[in-house]
Amino acid sequence: MLLLPHGYEGQGPEHSSARMERFLQLCAEDNIQVCYPTTAAQYFHMLRRQVRREVRKPLVVMTPKQPLRMKESRSPIAEFTTGSFEEILDDPTVTEKSKITRVVLCTGKVAWDAMAERTKRNANVAVVRVEQLYPFPIAGLRSILATYPNAKQMVWLQEEPENMGAWRFVDAIVWPMKNEGYDWRHVARVESGSPATGSKAIHDQELVDLMEQTFAAW
């Protein structure tokens, strides 16, 4: 198992990226696992699965610092003693799924930013978290999307620049779904030769821009 520091927190290019995209380029023939858990219980069950499964495969984990201090990433004791690792997580805050018109698909801590923005705007948007990028849980994604009958707008949101992160890997997987009535778009930082800006002020403005693009009217 390989734990890699990864997360855009305004700390500069040397403290933001684990080069997720390079590990995803290595993924083929069910050879490794790439995960980005967002809660304490998910992290626990991921470790437990790795130890208990009969077939051992390398596990690469993205580990941002910020969730260590976030209330949103905490889990009640009951979630540790029951359940298992979920490769993809539906939005637990949505009560009336028929009202949802847009689904934001993302991985990692940017999900919490999207949820906070959704609450702020009171938008009819669901935020779905991909906890395992490879093998990609395409069946789980289809199952979740089927529960949102009026959601035809799909957004892949990532905090990494467009030429980094998981977007180009995910795009190849969800491409067939573009012909199934879904309008797919993606939101990312602009392409860059550097993983991240060295300015906290610019970082904060980039996050504002990401949220604006994610929730803007189509």
Overview of this protein structure:
This protein has a single domain, classed as Rossmann fold, CATH 3.40.50.11610. Helix content is 31%, strand content 20%. The chain contains seven helices and nine strands. The protein starts with a strand and ends with a helix. The model has no long low-confidence stretch (mean pLDDT 96). InterPro entries: 2oxoglutarate_DH_E1, KGD_C_sf, ODO-1/KGD_C, THDP-binding, Transketolase-like_Pyr-bd. GO terms for molecular function: oxoglutarate dehydrogenase (succinyl-transferring) activity; thiamine pyrophosphate binding.
The CATH topology is what? Rossmann fold
SSE order in H/E notation? Answer: EHEHEHEEHEEHEHEH
The largest sheet is: 5 strands, mixed
- Radius of gyration computed on alpha carbons: 17 Å
Any idea what the CATH architecture is?
3-Layer(aba) Sandwich
Query: What's the N-to-C terminus distance?
Result: 41 Å
**Count of helical regions:** 7
CATH homologous superfamily placement: Multifunctional 2-oxoglutarate metabolism enzyme, C-terminal domain
Please indicate the count of domains.
Answer: 1
Q: Globular, elongated, flat, extended or rod-shaped: what is the shape?
A: globular
Mean pLDDT over the full residue set:
96
Q: Which structural class should the secondary elements be placed in?
A: alpha/beta
Number of strands: 9
Q: Mind telling me the CATH class?
A: Alpha Beta
Low-confidence stretches at least 5 residues in length (pLDDT < 50)? none
Helix content range = 25-40%
Placed side by side, the strands forming the largest sheet appear as 4-6-5-8-9
Q: Approximately what portion of the residues adopt beta-strand conformation? A: 15-25%
